[in-house]
Amino acid sequence: MSTPTVVPRVMPQQEAIRRLLSDLFGRPVVVSRNPPLIRQVTDKFTVALFTKEDDAVGVVGLADLDFTAYAGAALTMFPTPMAERQIEMGQVDEMVFENFREIMNVCASQFNGGNGAHVKLTQMMRLPKDKLPPPVEAQLRRPAARLDFTVQIPNYGKGRLSFLAV
Asked: What's the structural domain count of the chain?
């Protein structure tokens, strides 16, 4: 007999994500719902894997290159042209990547509480350079729940951010 999968208590509301990101960036951001983000094999994404107590992946965060660069830069107020150059180059540098890791680490709090599984950020990946573990790739095709947003960071830019409960 298999053990039922425990997904996070609830997926966070759009307003909770907006407040959290606004607090992190020290400026009001605009968060809009979007149709599901469809990832192509060659698309450049940052992936955050959030695992449960049993080390199984519980939530996956997906961010396009634009959101990774703008959010990573905005966290420590790097100049906007720096983020724009990194988008043009097709990759973010280590400082911006580490800043984005911290943003995802704080986002983990939005999936914890109640009777659901407690998750923590355990791994960050850059697609297509890194390869998702096959079980995660399969789970992403049929998530238990998902949220897809466009996030506009004033004086920086906008990008796509999705969270999938797997």
From this structure: 1
